[in-house]
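In response to reviewer comment 3 from the previous cycle, which asked for concrete evidence that the modeling workflow produces usable outputs, we include below a single protein chain processed end to end. The sequence was submitted unchanged, and the resulting structure tokens are shown without manual editing.
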Amino acid sequence: MTNVLRWTAYELAFESERTREHPFWDVDLTVELTAPSGRAFTIDGFWDGGQTWRARLRLDEIGEWRWRTVASDADDAGLHDQSGALTCVPYEGPNAVYRHGPVQVAGDGHTLAHADGTSFLWLGDTVWNGLIRANDADWDDYLCTRRAQGFSVIQFFSTHWRGLATDPEGQAAYTEDGRFTVNPRFYQRLDPKVAAIADHGLLASAIVVLSLYDEEPGWAWPAAQLIRFARWLRARWGAYHIAWSFGGDGDFSGERAERWKPIGAAVYSNPPEALVTMHPFGWSWVGDEFRDQPWVTFFVYQSGHSAEEPKVRWLPEGPHVSDWLQRPARPIINVEPNYEDHPSYGSGVRFTAAEVRRASYWSLLITPPAGVTYGHFSLWAWASEREPVGEAIRRQAEYTLEPWWSVLATPGAESMTILRRYFESGDWWTLRPALDLLSEQPGAHDARRFIAAARTLAGDWTAAYLPVGGTIHLQPGAATDCSARWFDPRNGHWLAAERVTATAERLSFTAPSDGDWVLDLRR
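The workflow returned the following structure tokens.
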């Protein structure tokens, strides 16, 4: 009997007895699984070109498993009523994804954790085109670098799009000549790179279909086609430890949300998927629309790429700031804040590491800290040499992209390594927003001076982020019996923090410079 390591992917392959005109549509293949405990559930198989179908499993119980196939064409003995057994054995290596198990919503409803309860901090990187454009060797170098820098999530596109019509081999993700069908050759090239993300101890995060414009798949495809494609992709990659953003970059508010509710339920409900969300366009929030949808297990937003005052203010003051108090609770993650070196919409001013840090610390302190994502203007497009943006991004055609490998060790990326180090210095998963500790909010008059503050549930750790230094005024009891230090998010250094004012009305500290600082109070 074959041994399979717990929480790793294992593949079954089947050959149909006949050739079909539309194999993507003509046959359904499922695999019935029975765990050692007797728990039973069914997963989809998927067509992989020609007469080949596959099923990818991820076993979660130690012991003997039984499996059996069911094909909609019961006369096809190559697909129907195949059966066998597998033995799931413990994984004992160093990879955190395989050692601790799949990432899911933690018990508190606000953060993420592995299957065994180990907390998981989402520290993402947007490399949207990288999965499609990279070769295997470059992809491995990239993943090694990001793992060493402390990143934990890799965000990417799952299909070609308006700025990337084919992969480097000229293959498109799907064809729509006559009847829609997926292109297995396109995905066979991607499979090892998706698997490699988990093999490097990272979580994959895939946008299933782009939905910014009405002509993109999220809106243009009929519901039945969207369901079939998304189920096919889930069957193909679901065993590789993945978070799904079903619709990407779209307007999913109000009535436009209604299209997605039955479609998402059809794709992700049976069996339930641990991590599924909708990725709305910038400065929008869809918590109200999808809170009643059990298949949506966490919420994301993008605070976007604008330096205009109202857009900057939206991040620390938008609807997500209070939404975390609603029930049922969902983790909330800013998966697309301003990218480093990205030109601001309107002014064209390029964002620096300072804006990256500001968005990141704000995001982790204004809601319970499930995570945040980093991005770089040149990295996400994955250019192998300098190239113009062109018409792929309609507001950025005149800009030039730098080679992906030249922007891995930027000040913004290094700031994320330091950010992780800071949050992991305590029980970060118990931090909760605590703006009531401030006796004065300078952000009321200037969004760029907004101070975000959070305190652990036990009250033994308070973190307050000052984007441009200055003086922070706290309620008088905010630092009772606490040590006070300044943390420098640019280099990770610590300095003692001296009280400059201590009265019955307030307690004040002044930052060492006019750069950004974290005031750290601990008992």
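The chain has a mean pLDDT of 96. We consider this sufficient to address the reviewer's concern, and the full set will be provided in the supplementary archive.
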